[in-house]
Amino acid sequence: MDGIHDLGGKQGFGPVPHRANSLSYLPVFHEDWEHLGYSLLFLGAGELGLFNVDELRHAIERMEPRHYLASSYYDRIVIGVATLFVEKGALRQERLAELVGGAYPLALAQGPGREARTGATPFEVGDRVQVRDEFVAGHIRMPGYVRNKRGVVIHRTGHAWPFPDAVGHGLQSPSEPTYHVLFTTEELWGEGADSGTVVVDLFGGYLLPA
Predict the structure, then answer these.
(1) Which of 98, 80, 76, 93 is nearest to 168 (CA)?
(2) Which of 9, 19, 155, 165 is 20 to 30 A away from residue 111, measured at CA?
(3) Which of the four pLDDT bands, split at 50, 70 and 90, describes residue 14?
(4) Predicted TM-score (pTM) of this structure
(5) Is residue 113 part of a domain?
């Protein structure tokens, strides 16, 4: 899903402040209400079993673009959780409007997901791979800037996980391995890019042998 959330490699947003290779002990929450987002997440996904984390990610991706950009990190979590509570039938949108004293905007409607791929041979460290050249209307955990690019597997994670494109839409999925794939900046953004490398975590279902 090439949504407003997929900003990797995009220009026009200015530099990203960061502390490379250092730990930050800044507070997790900056406002008293922000912990509500995580509380509602664990209530819905854990205690009630209404949705999974990829469904929440997709609900946030489905926010109207202007609404998404105008919202803070924890705003988006609250809106995503509220959307899923309504979609799963645990809460009425009219009740939300009553509580806030006006319209409560939720995420846009969800489209269909896709089934997980099965039967692929796992990759090993050192294998050259190519990211599938595909556009997905629904949830996907592959950043758009690596689409159709070639890299090298430098690590295979010790755990397998359900395919996000499926479980993000409430579909069942077998677990599959995930990989750390190393790309050169020239491969990602052309010869005019500063020389360097980028490591991207990718599910096996997004990869082909190069």
Answers:
(1) 80
(2) 9
(3) confident
(4) 0.89
(5) no
Tracing tokens 């924890």 back to the chain, one arrives at 74
- H helices present in the chain, as ranges: 35-42, 53-61, 65-70, 73-87, 93-100, 164-167, 185-189
How high does pLDDT run on average in the chain? 91
- Asked if residue 141 and residue 73 are part of one domain, the reply reads no
Owning domain of residue 164: 128-209
Q: Report the distance separating Cα 140 and Cα 113, nearest Å.
A: 9
- CA angle 147/81/102 to nearest 5° reads 120
Shared domain check, 140 and 70? no
- C-alpha span between 116 and 17 (Å, rounded): 36
What is the C-alpha end-to-end distance of the chain, expressed in Å?
24
Query: What amino acid occupies position 137?
Result: A
Place of tokens 């042998």: 209
Give me the number of domains the chain comprises. Answer: 2
Q: Give the strands of the sheet with 150-162, arranged side by side.
A: 197-203, 175-184, 150-162, 128-131, 207-209
Report yes or no on 122 lying in a domain: no
pLDDT, one tens digit per residue, over 24-81 is 666 788 888 998 888 999 999 999 999 999 999 999 999 999 999 999 999 999 999 9
How many CA within 13 A on the CB side of residue 162?
16
Residue type, 20: A
| Alpha carbons 82 and 109: distance in angstroms, whole number | 13
3-state secondary structure of 36: helix
Q: 171 with 200, same domain?
A: yes
